[in-house]
Design goal:
Largest sheet: none
Shape: elongated
Number of helices: 11
Number of strands: 0
Structural class: mainly alpha
Order of helices and strands: HHHHHHHHHHH
Strand content: under 5%
Length: about 240
């Protein structure tokens, strides 16, 4: 709107006043069509979410961000196969590439206080991967791993195991798929799976057998596990 005013009207604003037509357009939009959310409003909501999360109010921040996500989904088209393709639908202080990953992370943090956010995290991660299957493989892997971890935090161990098995098939060379899975059985304190050192060790050793990238990280996890198991036995 403000750009059109500049092109079609004799605007004399100079210096700091050059922002006035844009600010006026925002106010006019909010007064005449408050039910239609514009990018400026979404940007404000994103920033408010970051502020709340930084203050430890992840639940409030995530509620706002999930509302932002619902509005953004209306702008996505089938031709947008990756989150990079979707950047064009939003202009603000944040880019969608980073914000979408922050939303997944903060949903996990909010779940520590209110488990229902783990359910929202599962839904969000599945939706993201369905909408943007050609996004960077590491992001897709992290989204699907967050989904699998969330099942364990909700006590849905069988679903979590199934999700991790699917991850192993899709990303067989990633050490952190196996590490994340094994951690559910002893290290990840919010997991509802029964503590099972042998189960965790077997999962880690699957990674070694497949000679995954990040072998050193797997060996470090095995050492940590053995130390804790030995200490627990000694007690």
């Amino acid at each position: 709107m403000s750009e059109k005013w500049w092109k079609t009207s004799h605007v004399t604003a100079r210096g700091f006043d050059r922002d006035f037509p844009w600010m006026a357009a925002v106010v006019l939009w909010e007064r005449l069509a408050p039910h239609i959310i514009n990018s400026e409003k979404l940007n404000d909501m994103m920033q408010e979410g970051y502020r709340l999360c930084s203050e430890g109010k992840e639940d409030e921040g995530c509620r706002i961000w999930l509302e932002v996500w619902e509005h953004l989904k209306k702008r996505f088209t089938p031709e947008m196969k990756s989150i990079n393709d979707a950047e064009k639908v939003f202009s603000g202080l944040q880019n969608l590439f980073n914000w979408c990953q922050d939303l997944e992370m903060e949903l996990g943090n909010a779940g520590l206080k209110e488990p229902s956010f783990y359910e929202k995290r599962i839904e969000y991660c599945r939706e993201f991967c369905r909408l943007f299957p050609e996004t960077d493989r590491l992001i897709i892997e992290n989204m699907k791993r967050a989904e699998a971890e969330s099942y364990f935090t909700l006590g849905m161990v069988e679903e979590g195991d199934r999700a991790f098995r699917d991850l192993v098939e899709e990303f067989p060379d990633s050490a952190w798929v196996y590490i994340g899975w094994g951690d559910m059985y002893w290290l990840f304190r919010d997991s509802k799976a029964p503590r099972d050192y042998d189960r965790a060790e077997n999962i880690y050793r699957m990674a070694l057998e497949r000679n995954v990238d990040g072998r050193e990280d797997v060996l470090e996890r095995l050492q940590m596990l053995e130390e804790e198991r030995t200490n627990e036995t000694a007690v």
